[in-house]
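Hello Y.,

Per our agreement to keep a running log of every chain we model this quarter, I'm adding this entry. I've kept the format consistent with earlier entries: sequence first, then predicted structure.
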Amino acid sequence: MRIAGTVLGILAVTLSMAGIGQAQSELPISGTIEAVNCQTNVLVINGTSGVELFSVVPNATVFINSSSANFCTLGEYVGSYAIASASAEGGRRSVGRVDVLIPPPVYPSYGSFGVGIPFIPMFNQGGTRRH
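Predicted structure for the entry above:
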């Protein structure tokens, strides 16, 4: 019984060590989305290292400003800034998570008079300006 426990212990350690050499860390890749191909699950990002092509894993998570989205939705955001978590496995670079960051819209300003008083054009009921 003691031998069986020892053998099982050695086997467990050996099997757990077998995956250590294959473990890959994820690296953040940031840049603009250049292309998205839903049929082949390919994402192209133009980042600091130039244009890079990644295969996207089937269960990848995608977020648009923190809202969960589908991978194919990324096609609507070509040209937007994105951060992808990439890893290399067997010489292939793959992505497991993509975060797209969309800046808020900028509304026009009409200027102001003095400190903090906005300028709002005044019109009378006929649509002509009051003097």
